[in-house]
Write a structure and sequence with these properties.
heterodimer; A: mainly beta; B: mainly beta; four-stranded antiparallel sheet
Amino acid sequence: DVQLVESGGGLVQPGGSLRLSCAASGFTFSGYWMSWVRQAPGKGLEWVADIKQDGSDKNYVDSVKGRFTISRDNVKNSLYLQMNSLTVVDTAVYYCAREPIYSGSRGDYYYMDVWGKGTTVSVSS
Amino acid sequence: NQMTQSPSSLSASVGDRVTITCRASQSIGLFLNWYQQKPGEAPKLLIFATSSLQTGVPSRFSGSGSGTDFTLTISSLQPDDFATYYCQQSHSTPRTFGQGTRLEIK
């Protein structure tokens, strides 16, 4: 079965750091872009970051640039999110997702077709 | 690129035809995806590239639009469809989501 399992969430104080992991199985991990999406309590979805198959291209939402780093290990079939200088607004469930690309006549269409169950990050003093 | 969904919430009955609208602040061509999320669960992909139905998704779901205006239509609501729906643009990064539309039972 295709599966993504996040881990590494927890309670951290403002200004602290946390590293999230996402273990992939059931598909060729190195063949896909991968992404992180978060959801604050009672709020909507927020795309956080994504990374190309070989790690050579990374994109971030402005609110995390300079604080968060997305990375991957294609040998370990794992995706990571290093989160530094955390603030209360970073409190959320963090999902990892597989990001296939559909090549259409008008370009490459990105979407997220497989999601993990999420890991909860709470930033509080 | 800001994505705005309407309505924010909607009450409907089983068997109803329902349409949810998503508007982009800038033209995004056909780079629009739709997801369904139920409480306590991860989102589920319904439609990608505006109108392509994800494998396994019932055919009562359909998507249309282009440029800045898009719609998700459920042709005949089923009990399992009561959830929150999100659009997402994949034209550029950050790949922004709409704020969500909560579909409730009337």
